Amino acid sequence: MSRKILIVDDDLDFSSIHKEILEKDGFTVTAKYTSADALESLKNGSEKPDLIVCDLMMEKDDSGFTFCHNVKKTPHLARTPILMLTGVNRAKNLPFDLKSNSAREWIKADDFAEKPIRAEDFLAKIHRLLGEPSNKHD
Q1: pTM (2 decimals)?
Q2: φ, ψ for residue 112 (rounded to 5)?
């Protein structure tokens, strides 16, 4: 059975490219282009992903943070891993990571990476968050 991934990003090109990468790796992928649409589909049960990939800056500069907080405080979604991808470090010169306890407390994502991300690194993070080997041929 194929694992399901939800991509939440207002960049249609990014979503399309990464959807293709994931589908070639055997995942079933849905894309939502606003955090509000994604959250609504998650809360009403029309989306039941095994993992969520989200952007940080969508409708607002902090939309990704707000989205992650809302996902993690919803009981049936709280254990869904979230990979946050963003270009904020480069675009706004606002470095952050998930290394400290305080950062993990307010970011709420399970992992973080800078855009652009190489396909191999992206897939490795996805598989790690799902508790799977990063290379299916190993």
Answers
A1: 0.87
A2: -145, 145
